[in-house]
Specification:
207 residues; elongated
């Protein structure tokens, strides 16, 4: 499904209006991506308020490198939100496939399984990007401009929220996927990661 408007080209108020509407997109996947992108953006802000100040000259090169990674992640996160919406549209089309004969029913079942796997990929990638950003938040808390320490903390919370929300979106797809090895591979990345963070995971029904 081709999007008429991307997350990056939508105003905040218009995005929230769409999120609150009866339209299923944007939904939880897009919201997770926007949340994570806000976390990355806040870390970028902290970098920008650290770079160029004599007091932090000894860490400037490192902070610039973190800034570049934050900006790359922010763009990627919004793109993943767009991809999530596109794939959702595909799933809706697949569920409309005919199932009047055994052959049609089997073709529809196989197409649904492929679509569910595809739908799990964008939130899974978002999960990994959020996870990769958290060490940058930890580092900025130590070397960044302390006058914006609260922004580092808020940025970290937003990244954790994006990560947990992304995991929920992966799990809602895995719950309907028959391929046990596919599901196992995803969970073998996600569960140890949140376990190491000390974050509780209550899961979803059937997950």
């Amino acid at each position: 499904m081709k999007l008429e408007k991307t997350l990056g080209s939508t105003s905040i108020s218009a995005y929230l209006d769409r999120l609150a509407s009866a339209d299923p997109t944007p939904g939880g996947g897009a919201a997770a991506a926007v949340t994570a992108a806000q976390g990355a953006a806040l870390l970028s802000m902290v970098c920008n308020l650290t770079i160029g100040k004599k007091k932090f000259a000894d860490v400037e090169e490192e902070v610039r490198a973190i800034h570049d990674q934050c900006e790359t992640a922010r763009r990627q996160m919004l793109n993943l939100g767009d991809r999530d919406m596109e794939v959702f549209g595909t799933i809706m089309e697949v569920y409309k496939m005919p199932k009047t004969t055994p052959e049609e029913a089997e073709a529809r079942r196989a197409a649904i399984q492929l679509a569910l796997k595809a739908s799990s990929e964008a939130p899974f990638e978002l999960f990994k990007r959020c996870l990769a950003m958290l060490p940058h938040a930890d580092r900025l808390e130590k070397i960044g401009n302390p006058t914006v320490l609260s922004d580092v903390i808020v940025g970290r919370y937003l990244l954790v929220a994006g990560l947990m929300s992304a995991m929920a979106n992966v799990e809602v797809n895995l719950a309907s996927i028959d391929d046990a090895e596919f599901c196992k591979a995803k969970r073998e990345v996600m569960l140890p990661a949140i376990g190491s963070m000390g974050v509780g995971w209550r899961g979803l029904a059937g997950a």
